[in-house]
Design a protein that fits this description.
Blueprint (H helix, E strand, L loop, with lengths): L6 H55 L5 H81 L2
Helix pairs in contact: 1-2
């Protein structure tokens, strides 16, 4: 017969799983905030790149062409496009991190539910063993009293 599980020990595991879930909650919230910040930075960088592109095209549409001014606009456009690509990459990485943290949180939540179910089963088993022991003692007492008549 398998050794009975002590509900007090399982309760300690439940507490550990709750702490791990709280840590996963914290990591998920931080990843969510980082993703929101990266999205905001991405949008700002895209707007700046679009503005630089509009300035470039507006200069090209003008009848005169100033090479030094055009070179400045082109440099600004290239810099803003580079910053926008970096912001896209940061957002993609933060979205990936957020997805991993969400998976970690789901795993932690599943472990909490599993250990809580195990704790409940261990409590029921312990209560059943106590009840059986009580009934055995009662049966022994009744048998003893009957035999002493």
């Amino acid at each position: 017969m398998a050794r009975p599980v002590d509900p007090r020990q399982v309760a300690k595991l439940v507490a550990v799983q709750h702490v791990r879930r709280a840590a996963a909650d914290s990591a998920l919230a931080a990843a969510r905030a980082a993703e929101a910040e990266a999205l905001s930075a991405q949008q700002s960088a895209r707007e700046a790149a679009d503005s630089a592109r509009d300035d470039w095209f507006a200069h090209l549409a003008e009848p005169g062409f100033a090479p030094d001014y055009a070179r400045g606009l082109a440099g600004r456009l290239m810099q803003r496009e580079g910053l926008a690509e970096e912001a896209d990459t940061r957002h993609r990485l933060s979205a990936d991190l957020h997805a991993r943290r969400q998976d970690d949180w789901r795993s932690a939540e599943a472990r909490v539910q599993l250990t809580e179910a195990q704790h409940e089963a261990a409590r029921r088993d312990a209560a059943r063993r106590r009840e059986e022991k009580r009934l055995d003692a009662l049966s022994d007492r009744v048998t003893y009293n009957w035999m002493m008549r």
